[in-house]
Amino acid sequence: MESDSTTIVNSGLFVDPHAPDQKTDSERKLLRRIDWRLLPILGILYALALVDRTNISIARVVGMDEDLGLSVGTRFSIVVGVYFIPYTLFQLPSNLLLRKVSPRKLVSLCVISWGTAQLVMGFATSWKVVAFLRAVLGAMEAGFFPSVVYIISTWYTRHEVQTRLAIFYVVAILIGGFSAFLAYAISLLSGKLGIAGWAWIFIIEGAVTVAFGIIGWFLLPGFPDQNEFLSPDDTAIVLDRVQNDRGDSLPDVLTRKKLVDAFDWRVAAYAFMFLCATISTYSVGFFVTLILRGLGWSVSASLLLSAPPFVFAGISVVAVSRLSDFYRQRAIFIAAQTAVSILGWSLTGFAPSGVWRYAGLFLSNAGSSGTVIGILAYSSNNIVSHSKRAIVSSVIVSAGGIGGLLASYIFTEASAPRYVPGITVTIVSQGFLLLVLCATTVFFHRQNAWAIRNSAQLEGHPGFMYTL
Q: Name one Pfam family in it (predicted).
């Protein structure tokens, strides 16, 4: 067995930042090829998912409110929140089907289906119909995000994953950031063919989603051992890299015992942290335009000003993820970004100046977006086996659906335009995230130390150490 110091370096407990890159030129070239094959198409499809689930708030601002009476009572919260019920319930079954159906078929069918639901929403004549279609949207989108996280994690070693997740995610949030202004531009079609401007948003954006779902049928990647775009030699290199890193390059058979054993307290901890992080991200996504309207900006100005916080978040997420992968540390970066999110929401909720409240949106968006990616990488790094990866990724993302459901109800009409109760709940949730993060990190540190002292194996794989 390797010496203790070597084991620690290779496990991520300590890394010399000046250590030479161990990848060969051929490996780097192969990784770039995989990156270009996976990340752009997955990022675009996730961007469409984000746009389709959050454009309800833009449609509301440009006339849907008046036509369908969304401001009455809790109707808007119901319309927003009902999406997350099927979105949460259907993620695990969908991920368990992924290998049997194949990623290309399952994911592209999900995209085409939710795009169709989005398009039909443009012809809704009551808020109840919109609520029903939002539930359909949630059911169809349920299988997408956990599948993508699962797929990406199977292609890369543990300390390459976060950067890839960040790039995929940033493509989505950058497109999503400008989607508000694009939706406003689409709404200017109001009256064409007798259709309201808000309805055109759903019709056009839904049609675009369907089109990309069809494209995805031909472009979406599968798992490494099933891929059709690499040569057998290149595929062997990919599988060997993953096998040497964590010992699960090939799928294992899912059994009832594995399904039960996967649900331990660590999974609950990851899920709770992700829930807290998504309360913040969904709060920004659903309510940034309404918060800006509350600051006194016009509709067009509010939509335009909603984009810069997403651009800033995109730059921040990639930069921090690169650092996290380089130093092979997760918890310290998650904690720092959570603190940034708390600072941002504190400014938005309680600063007297409108300028500082707007600046807070930059920080809360950047911090919470980075935390989402960090938690996904943190959990992925500390899991071994395909079956557990499929289960855990879906459970964690399902918890994010609960976070979205909570976000849709804590920002109430009665608390507009400052939304102080919702912002307060969001800040408190970030504090709980930090507490759970501290507990898991201490546990992993002690487990690593125990394994070194006793020359023992963790997760049944020789040399495996938990990433802190």
A: MFS_1
Residue 461 β-bridge partners: 458
Helix, strand and coil content of the chain, in percent to the nearest 5, comes to: 80, 0, 20
Hey, what are 320's tokens?
Answer: 């921090």
The domain locations on the chain are: 25-224+232-244+258-454
Nearest to 164 by CA among 150, 153, 175, 176: 153
What type of residue sits at position 367? G
DSSP for 344-386, please give it.
HHHHHHH-SSHHHHHHHHHHHHHHHHHHHHHHHHHHHHT--SH
pTM for the structure as a whole: 0.81
| Sequence-distant contacts of 203-206: CB under 8 A, at least 24 apart | 203/119, 203/122, 203/123, 205/48, 205/51, 205/52, 205/55, 205/118, 206/52, 206/115, 206/116, 206/117, 206/118, 206/119, 206/120, 206/121, 206/122
* CA-wise closest residue to 288 among 358, 198, 352: 358
- For residue 458, give every residue at least 6 positions away whose Cβ sits within 8 Å of its Cβ, in sequence order, or none: 447, 448, 451, 464, 465, 466
> In this predicted structure, what is the pLDDT of residue 413?
67
CA dist 312 and 366 (Å) reads 7
pLDDT single digits (tens) 254-277: 777 777 777 889 999 999 999 999
Spatial separation of the C-alpha atoms in residues 136 and 107, rounded to whole Å: 16
- Could you tell me which residues are beta bridge partners of residue 458? 461
24, pLDDT greater than 70: yes
Choose the weakest-confidence range: 21-25, 233-237, 450-454: 21-25
Fold adopted by 25-224+232-244+258-454: Growth Hormone; Chain: A; (1.20.1250)
**Degrees, nearest 5: CA angle 238-243-247:** 150
